[in-house]
What we know:
The N terminus is likely disordered. This protein folds into 2 domains: 32 residues; 177 residues, Porin (Beta Barrel). It is mainly beta. An 8-stranded antiparallel β-barrel has the order 1-2-3-4-5-6-7-8.
Amino acid sequence: MKRFVVAGIGVLSMIAGMGSANAADMARRAMPTKAPVYSTYNWSGAYIGLNAGGGFGRSSFDGVPTTGGFNVSGALVGGQLGYNWQFGQTVLGLETDIDWSSIRGSAACGAFSCQTRNDWIGTTRGRIGYAFNRFLPYVTGGAAYGNIKASTTGFPGASDTRFGWTLGAGAEFALAGPLTAKLEYLYADLGKFDCGASCTATPPQNVKFNTNIVRAGLNYRF
Length: 222
């Protein structure tokens, strides 16, 4: 009888041990695994870079003679520098740029030809973006400045440096190392200036200029 009791106790002990082992194994399996740490790219800091693209817009001579609105277009190439501050995924920035420009166009004005040219254009803008790790879409706006050259057949023409405004949007991509690439659109309005007797025998002669800028850029971050 004792042998049966001892044997029964042994069997029960084995079953209990197996149950404890299985329970511990199940507990280990049920424990949640730690989520991997997601490393967000840090956009904070200064940068400098180059850009190139093109501009297309409208100009007009609003005097006697008059042209109405006509198209202007040309290439752009230049450089920019700026600084970013990142707060979580929000990125605030300041950027200034200046580009050589070949934007120009002409139209008939009475018996003459009237031409508008833009030789350089720059902007100083704020930027607000939302970072998706190495991808940064943003909106931007601020001041625009540049020259407007106006001429009419038979007259010497005139040039003036104008200040206006700009608004646009873009996206920047972090490449290898300190390099980033961007694609950007800006609308810039430089307003108008009076070319006066340099463009017409019956002043005033107000010349307007605005442009849409599409350009790509490459930045080096410090």
